[in-house]
TrEMBL record:
Coiled coil: none
Organism (species): Denitrobaculum tricleocarpae
Family the entry assigns: Belongs to the NadD family.
Originating gene: nadD
Keyword Transferase: yes
Protein name: Probable nicotinate-nucleotide adenylyltransferase
């Protein structure tokens, strides 16, 4: 797991899940913001085998997506993983519960964009995600109002932390979540794939890598 890397007791680690189809600057922006503002030691990207809410026809193989994601990463503080495949888990809730059980002395924070807060109530056992670890939600263009009015935000409203309480946020007992206003990055994997399709004369990023639940 993690190429033999095991987290040390007391470490604070952010978890960013997604299909990474492909990884892009938006993923990096969230990761770098989380490292800085949440005082995290590392970020783990959890490249999912298949997002249940997305079509498998549009999904590159998991190993290829992970390899492409690793190319995007320019710091040892961000690690690309395929933990769901290693654990044999299919849903975020069970993956996070297994991580917490396996590393009880590590402080994990689930990271996601505001667009995911809008529809997280469609995820399997979504309540368990909030009850397993602290959650940091990053603003995205046009999503703020809908995200903060979402079913999940309303259900867990009394557990929301202020942005001024970030210093030890990773140590917060769940449920605990914070909505982070940040430099907005509108890039998405969907937009990147569409741009690649519109530019057939360019070398597509998928061609640069040999064959080997979430945006």
């Amino acid at each position: 797991m993690l190429d033999g890397h095991l987290p040390a007791a007391g470490q604070r680690i952010g978890l960013l899940g997604g299909s990474f189809n492909p990884a892009h600057d938006g993923h990096l922006a969230i990761s770098e913001e989380a490292l800085r503002r949440l005082d995290l030691d590392e970020i783990w990207w959890l490249v999912s085998p298949q997002n249940p809410l997305k079509s498998a026809d549009e999904m590159a193989p998991q190993a290829m997506r992970a390899e492409r994601a690793a190319v995007q990463v320019g710091t040892p503080k961000i690690r690309v993983t395929m933990l769901e495949r290693e654990f044999g888990t299919a849903y975020t809730a069970e993956t996070l519960q297994l991580l917490v059980a396996r590393f009880p002395r590590v402080r994990f924070v689930w990271l996601m964009g505001a667009d995911n807060l809008i529809q997280i109530d469609r995820w399997q056992d979504w309540h368990k995600i909030f009850n397993t670890m602290a959650i940091a939600i990053f603003d995205r263009p046009t999503y703020s109002l809908r995200a903060l009015a979402s079913k999940a935000a309303r259900h867990f409203a009394r557990f929301r932390k202020r942005e001024s309480e970030l210093k030890r946020f990773a140590d917060s007992a769940p449920p605990a979540w914070v909505f982070l206003h940040n430099r907005l990055n509108a890039q998405s994997s969907t937009a990147m794939r569409a741009a690649e399709e519109r530019a057939p004369t360019r070398v597509r990023s998928a061609d640069c890598i040999p064959d080997a639940d979430k945006d």
